[in-house]
Amino acid sequence: MSPPPDSEALDHLLVQVCRLHYLRARSLFETIGLYRGQPPVLGVLAEGEGVSHSELAARLDVRPATISKMLDRMERAGFLTRRPDAEDQRVSRVYLTERGRAVQCEVRRLIRTMAQETFAGFSLEEQALLSRFLLQIRENLTRATSRGIEDGRFTAEITGSAEKNR
Questions:
Q1: DSSP string of the chain?
Q2: What pTM was computed for the model?
Q3: Hey, what CATH class is 7-118 in?
Q4: How confident is the model at residue 165 (pLDDT cuts 50, 70, 90)?
């Protein structure tokens, strides 16, 4: 049995994998005119149209300013439209256009492609084990991040730089 890799090497490998996954997803989504953060917006709207900006931001766990910029870009590209709320003119509701609905099939196809490329050579058992490991990593990082938020250490990172990449 080989010795376990040191934790710094594992962390570096995880960063490399995340970066490569991001780059591959970005290149795939660009082929259909979408930016990396936009497919989740389409997914939420496909589940139920007519949500407000703030509802959409909350469901995607981003700031309202971030969602507004994203919606502006997606509206200019013809994927969605915004209409005033019938009862409260200060609120606008977001709806998919025909183009937005049509691109959903392509998004799902690209996500399947991405999964096939990412997990090529893994057995179902290995994929299940990897899923368990990733869930544990997510839980560990969520717990650590929550502690950092509570004592004020991560506020700038969470509200600032993380938002720039969406």
A1: -PPPPPHHHHHHHHHHHHHHHHHHHHHHHHTTT--TTHHHHHHHHHH-S-EEHHHHHHHHT--HHHHHHHHHHHHHTTSEEEEE-SS-TT-EEEEE-HHHHHHHHHHHHHHHHHHHHHTTT--HHHHHHHHHHHHHHHHHHHHHHHHHHHTTSSHHIIIIIHHHT-
A2: 0.74
A3: mainly alpha
A4: very low
Residue 53 in contact with residue 64, Cβ under 8 Å? Answer: yes
Q: How far apart are CA 116 and CA 110, in angstroms?
A: 10
Q: At a CB cut-off of 8 Å and minimum separation 6, what does 79 contact?
A: 34, 38, 42, 96, 97, 99, 100, 103
The residue written with tokens 């389409």 in the block is 42
Give percent of the chain above pLDDT 90: 70
Output the average pLDDT for the chain.
88
**Other beta carbons within 10 Å of 56:** 21
Residue pointed to by tokens 């080989």: 2
